[in-house]
Design goal:
Length: about 325
């Protein structure tokens, strides 16, 4: 900051001396005569001002240290993009996200973009490339803003919880109207559900239940996923008798829920047409995005911290460039 202040002060004083005749401003005579052999501000005059060599030395040292720290922190940001990519791949690999295509890749794409931008910031800080630093600052600001928007949006739409407990069981069941209107309208509406239902029926979500649980005691004590709870069995209120996790007979209360009449023991049908299956899908999405949000929040905090220090490094790089131009007589 001291270097910047003195450079600006010297530049203004020099311009005043150039624009004023010698007779009008006698204080400039010495300066103009000493610089007559050079059309620009000489380095000897620059050193004769109040900027001492000690100030210059420590200013350059501070600039170098700041840029090195920023390079290291950008390397940290580059590493921070790896958990973001990992969280995106984890989300994309889940059966429910495999069936909802536009939920699969936003986090992965953001993670790769942050990786590339962090690499540009690392190169710009380490080799003091102002152009790369400027590009890095702009792109990183945009990516951080997008990531924050995604986090806030995901938090808002996944906040409502449509689950309710079922007595004497280890799992929970789900009501469709307990979830956010946006999720209901964009995920489980009639236009999208046909493709999602077919995708779920072709997956092994329900087949895993028959492999893992044999007796009714094992099944009722299990902590099955929301998707399995909603799509692979009838609602408990229907009073069906357990045969195996995906085969149920003789409902005691078939009018207890509209989904009771939609249940079918055909393994390609089951309860995929039920509202409970739609609710289970939203329950799965909510559970998975809540877990991913923890990773994303930590990554955003690290990225913001790195970004603020990168702004300081960019200002230092500009000051260093201006100082070098004065030193070489370019201004």
């Amino acid at each position: 900051m001291l270097v910047w202040f003195n450079i600006v002060r010297i530049w203004r004083k020099n311009n005043r001396c150039r624009s004023s005749p010698i007779s009008h401003n006698p204080s400039c005579r010495h300066q103009i005569s000493s610089s007559s052999s050079h059309s620009h501000l000489s380095f000897s005059y620059f050193l004769s001002t109040s900027i001492s060599p000690i100030h210059i030395f420590f200013s350059f040292e501070a600039m170098g240290v700041s840029n090195n720290i920023t390079a290291i922190l950008n390397f940290v940001a580059l590493l921070a993009s790896i958990p973001i990519i990992g969280a995106g791949i984890w989300l994309a690999s889940k059966p429910d996200n495999e069936c909802i295509h536009y939920f699969r890749w936003p986090v992965v794409i953001l993670g790769f973009l942050i990786l590339l931008v962090s690499l540009a910031g690392f190169v710009g800080a380490y080799w003091n490339r102002q152009g790369l630093l400027a590009l890095y600052l702009f792109c990183m600001a945009v990516l951080i803003a997008l990531l924050l928007i995604l986090l806030v949006f995901a938090f808002i739409v996944t906040r409502p919880d449509g689950s309710y407990s079922v007595p004497s069981t280890g799992y929970r069941e789900y009501r469709l109207d307990g979830f956010s209107a946006w999720l209901r309208d964009h995920v489980t509406n009639s236009g999208n559900w046909g493709k999602i239902r077919t995708c779920l029926a072709d997956s092994d979500v329900c087949a895993k239940l028959t492999q893992n649980y044999i007796t009714s005691d094992q099944f009722f004590a299990a902590h099955i996923s929301p998707l399995q709870s909603g799509c692979c069995k009838p609602p408990t209120v229907c009073g069906y008798n357990y045969v195996n996790p995906t085969f149920w007979l003789n409902p005691a209360n078939p009018m207890g829920d509209p989904d009771c009449l939609l249940w079918n023991n055909d393994q390609s049908v089951l309860c995929y047409n039920c509202n409970s299956c739609r609710a289970g899908l939203l329950g799965n999405l909510r559970k998975e995005w809540r877990k991913a949000n923890v990773v994303l929040i930590v990554a955003v905090v690290v990225l913001i911290w790195v970004y603020l220090i990168a702004c300081s490094a960019f200002k230092n790089a500009q000051t260093e460039d201006l100082f070098r131009r004065y030193k070489q007589g370019w201004v």
